[in-house]
Amino acid sequence: QVQLVESGGGLVQPGGSLRLSCAASGSIFSINAMGWYRQAPGAQRELVAAFTNGGGSTYADSVKGRFAISRDNAKKMVYLQMNSLKPEDTAVYYCYYQIRSTLASGPYSYWGQGTQVTVSS
User: Fold this and answer.
1) What is the distance between the alpha carbons of residues 3 and 39, in angstroms, rounded to a whole number?
2) Of the candidates 58, 72, 97, which has an alpha carbon nearest to the alpha carbon of residue 19?
3) What is the pLDDT of residue 21?
4) Could you give the CA distance from residue 73 to residue 15 in angstroms, rounded to a whole number?
5) pLDDT-derived band of residue 1, with 50, 70 and 90 as boundaries?
6) How many whole angstroms separate alpha carbon 98 and alpha carbon 78?
7) Residues 111, 114, 61, 99: what is their CA dihedral angle, to the nearest 10 degrees?
8) CA dist list (Å): 32 to 9, 96, 103
9) Which residues on neighbouring strands pair with residue 95, listed in sequence order?
């Protein structure tokens, strides 16, 4: 009953910027976690950015200072602002939510469908 829909991917030149968005809808009692992962061809899926339990955020070393995660709680959305993009940022990006549909259920993990980010050389 929960769906995540991503948008914002595309082709960009090195040094450019993109902003990814992910909207959650359906039966949502609470959102326990939000984050962004990516998976490059032939590589494992890796954490890019996420909110921590303490309300802060954490980032992969490779994106620190360039990417920023943000959210809009009212809209049930999470964003990833990506600046100074590099070719090595090329990957499919997935949003991640940990959600309780009811007080008694979950939390369960949900993934967006993935959006392709390609940084040309």
Assistant:
1) 20
2) 72
3) 98
4) 30
5) confident
6) 12
7) -20
8) 25, 11, 12
9) 36
Q: What is the mean pLDDT of residues 103-113?
A: 94
Cis peptide before 107 (omega within 30 of 0): yes
pLDDT cut 90: percent of the chain above it: 94
Q: Give counts: helices (H), strands (E), the chain.
A: 0, 11
HSE-CB at 108 with a 13 A cutoff on CA atoms is 16
Amino acid, single-letter form, for residue 115: T
Residue length of the chain: 121
What pLDDT score does 51 carry? 96
**Pairing label, strands 10-12, 115-119:** parallel
Query: What is the DSSP code (8-state) at residue 29?
Result: S
Reported as a single tens digit per residue, the pLDDT across 50-93 is: 999 888 999 999 999 999 999 999 999 999 999 999 999 999 99
Selection from 117, 66, 84 nearest residue 15 by Cα: 84
